[in-house]
Amino acid sequence: MRKALNSVGAMALIALMVLGVNRANACTNVLVTKNASADGSTMISYAADSHVLFGELYFWPAENHPDNAMLDIYEWDTGKYLGEIKQAPHTYRVVGNMNENQVSIAETTFGGRSELRDTTGIMDYGSLIYVALQRAETARDAINIMTSLVEEYGYYSSGESFSIADPDEVWIMEMISKGPNNKGAVWVARKVPDGYISAHANQARITTFPLNDEENCIYSKDVISFAREKGYFDGKNKDFSFADTYAPLDYSAIRFCEARVWSAFRQVNQEDADKYEDFIMGESDERMPLFFKPQNKVSARDVMNIMRDHFEGTALDMTKDAGAGAYKVPYRWRPLTWEVDGEEYLNERAIATQQTGFSFVAQMRNWLHDPVGGILWFGVDDADASVYVPMYAGIQSAPHEFAVGNGNMLEFSWDAAFWVFNWVSNMSYSRYSYMIEDIRKVQKELEDKFEQMQPAIDNTASTLYEQNPKLAEQFLTDYTHNQARITVEKWQKLGQFLMIKYLDGNIHPEKDGEFLKNEYGNPHSPEYPGYDKEYYRNVVKDTGDKLKMKEMPQD
């Protein structure tokens, strides 16, 4: 018997095959341990950034499989069929990137040495994530499953950093294949010390690591010997650096990738992070540490805000240079690098970016039953202009507005959360400094409501779970589906509001969301804000006296 990734999840892979998704060098993860978090939960975040990724919530139900079952593997990025593997006797329910045991996995691609790409392997990085989620009971279990799969079936992808967490432990694992003639991969996994956070963004970050501490660090037996064999390393074992060996830094890796990590660290400990600004600017070779201790405990809302970062308040602030335009837009359309008069320049690459398909903050809480304790705070499109909706680990299906099969990249639908959020965010890019304030009001209103309701939802679901786990799951499903529907409806109304308020470059006055009328019941006269002084000065600098008002000669 042969099965592809089952149920609705298979539809996601078909959609990816049609669209030819490529997320290389595109994503950002933040990892938070129990004693670094405000409530004792563990957390990992993820932004799945791709110009052709349709943002939707993957869902696989728990299933039992016969002894002879096989699982078809398709490359996550392209949909290419890679081969088949043995199916597990039982697979767990998966909601997005979290399973029913509160195990969560995310990734960023670092590529690494191109000659090590193995095009003969079966397991690509995306399939590793979703197969492991269907099989893992803990984070350590997920690491064992992922590394065993690539050892048995080969690793098809290039270098990858994985965030792997359960309610008690948070791990970062980095892996790269060994080339077409060497089956498997070399890898290192390090547990993030309790009380610390970590982050990665498309650049390998594990340098040296303890060689005799299995509680906190595990690695492939040939991770060093393979590097010696290939001529990448000839020093002492204790000095071996995974990142420097398999993914050496260059300026692009620092400015486009490590800069995002730096900005995330800076938001939880500005004093310590600012010491590495010279490194980010390419003026120092002192790398940032893998783990960072926050000055204050980090909440789920804090992590959401990190995912919305554009380097605000730093030397890389994207709202400050001429590229931001008159309305301080913190986005730059691709490509990332460009030439003028024979010189190459760059656009900053922030955590929040316009091409995000979906993002999440996975929160795992060990003091609650798994269906209640796990929350995947899930949003689609640009994280800065999105809303993180709570998707509990115990839900029995994905909400319609976010479900796989409800829309695609080539057909606009008012019924799909992805298109509604893209409609609003793309509208805001034309007048960002004004519109983002209206967007954040509604964003905050919704996320405040989720936060305020959470204790009651947790308590009710926990009480129901003690009576009947299925009742708890149905309650959580109903709650999640209702909040998803309300959120999308609210965002539709927000888009309509923005269209009216900012019609034709004017601002139509309103109070508490109601547009003002004149004494005769007609629309109040709009405001004409024009542009700021800096913009006008640049216009004058460029045009000289061409636009200058002149006095006409008097007779």
From TrEMBL:
<keyword id="KW-0732">Signal</keyword>
<protein>
    <recommendedName>
        <fullName>Dipeptidase</fullName>
        <ecNumber>3.4.-.-</ecNumber>
    </recommendedName>
</protein>
<dbReference type="GO" id="GO:0016805">
    <property type="term" value="F:dipeptidase activity"/>
</dbReference>
<keyword id="KW-0224">Dipeptidase</keyword>
<keyword id="KW-0645">Protease</keyword>
<feature type="signal peptide">
    <location>
        <begin position="1"/>
        <end position="26"/>
    </location>
</feature>
<keyword id="KW-0378">Hydrolase</keyword>
<comment type="similarity">
    <text>Belongs to the peptidase C69 family.</text>
</comment>
<dbReference type="GO" id="GO:0006508">
    <property type="term" value="P:proteolysis"/>
</dbReference>
<dbReference type="InterPro" id="IPR005322">
    <property type="entry name" value="Peptidase_C69"/>
</dbReference>
<dbReference type="Pfam" id="PF03577">
    <property type="entry name" value="Peptidase_C69"/>
</dbReference>
<dbReference type="GO" id="GO:0070004">
    <property type="term" value="F:cysteine-type exopeptidase activity"/>
</dbReference>
